[in-house]
């Protein structure tokens, strides 16, 4: 007599692999489609148009309907061999960016540490002041700073005249490139410190108090506690803030352009954003301006790639 086996059948390895494979979710991608379409129209098309224009001799005549002539890489060669123009402005932009990022990180850290030591009332007062500086539009803030350093009626000249006894009235702050960049540094750092301070303060408040108290009982100084305990806890926040500040400070435009309009020398105070604008809109060399913009886009993509890769690695840990 044959006996019937009651043991369950085991699935084949291929069937098990197929069962483990899940179909990609459709709903999230369907919800992203409208946003992707808007980004493609608002960002993708201008980038493609800019890339095409960088290979053309696109001047003012082309705005009237005259067909543009293809020149290949001539615009890029012209830009990359322009030592007195493009490379000088690019180097100036990077030097200013390094100074601005360093000052922003330093002052933002000091303000965040100060907010941790203040009581509730003074911390609220400091927060309101930071929010007012952060909320002011860059153009409005630049105009106000320009009034403060005005040649004839500026508060700074009047104040210096009163405290030094010398006649500072009529001193042209913005005509001197070095003084122009000092004022520009005040404007940029003044507007960037609040974001850094608030972000660092939020991160520093998440450090366990028991750890800081134990370190203090062990005899560590405030500088050692900051360097050995606080910084490791907020290292990822510092990375994000530094990379974002680099991107923002390299692409600064409004403050430089507005301050030049108040009284600065455009030839000696251009940064890369204003240089691209003036090359295209003021001089009418849209093809060359497009080539500069494409080069700048690749520089920003390189910085953004580092930021994204660092963020992904931290999420995987």
Structural key phrases:
mainly alpha; disordered N terminus; 15 helices; two-stranded antiparallel sheet
Describe the protein.
This protein has 317 residues and is mostly helical. It has 15 helices and 2 strands. A two-stranded antiparallel sheet has the order 1-2. Helix 3 packs across helix 15 and helix 11 (235-250) packs antiparallel against helix 15. The longest helix is centred in the first third of the chain and has 35 residues, at 83-117. The chain is flat. The relative contact order is 0.11.
Q: Can you summarize this structure?
A:
With 317 residues, the chain is an all-alpha fold. The protein has helices at residues 13-20, 27-53, 74-80, 83-117, 120-135, 138-148, 155-164, 177-204, 209-217, 222-233, 235-250, 254-263, 266-269, 272-282, 286-316, and strands spanning 56-57, 69-70. It has 15 helices and two strands.
């Amino acid at each position: 007599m044959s006996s019937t086996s009651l043991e369950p059948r085991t699935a084949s390895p291929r069937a098990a692999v197929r069962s483990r494979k899940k179909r990609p979710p459709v709903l999230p991608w369907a919800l992203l489609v409208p946003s992707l379409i808007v980004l493609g129209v608002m960002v993708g098309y201008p980038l493609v148009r800019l890339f095409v224009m960088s290979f053309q001799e696109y001047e003012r005549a082309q705005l009237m309907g005259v067909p543009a002539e293809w020149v290949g890489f001539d615009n890029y060669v012209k830009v990359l061999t322009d030592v007195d123009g493009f490379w000088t402005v690019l180097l100036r932009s990077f030097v200013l960016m390094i100074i601005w990022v360093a000052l922003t990180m330093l002052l933002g850290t000091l303000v965040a540490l100060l907010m941790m030591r203040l009581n509730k009332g003074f911390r609220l007062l400091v927060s309101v002041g930071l929010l007012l500086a952060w909320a002011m539009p860059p153009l409005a803030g630049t105009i106000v700073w320009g009034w403060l350093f005005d040649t004839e009626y500026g508060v700074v000249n009047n104040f210096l005249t009163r405290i030094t006894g010398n006649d500072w009235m009529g001193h042209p702050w913005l005509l001197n490139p070095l003084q122009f960049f000092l004022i520009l540094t005040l404007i940029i750092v003044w507007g960037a410190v609040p974001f850094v301070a608030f972000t660092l303060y939020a991160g520093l408040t998440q450090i366990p108090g028991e750890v800081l108290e134990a370190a203090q009982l062990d005899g560590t100084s405030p500088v050692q506690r900051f360097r050995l305990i606080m910084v490791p806890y907020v290292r990822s926040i510092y990375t994000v803030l530094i990379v974002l500040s680099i991107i923002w400070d390299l692409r600064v435009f409004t403050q430089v352009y507005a301050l030049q309009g108040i009284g600065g020398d455009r030839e000696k105070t251009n940064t890369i954003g204003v240089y691209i604008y003036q090359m295209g809109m003021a001089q009418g060399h849209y093809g060359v301006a497009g080539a500069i913009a494409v080069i700048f886009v690749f520089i920003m993509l390189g910085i953004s790639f580092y930021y994204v890769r660092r963020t992904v690695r931290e999420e995987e840990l």
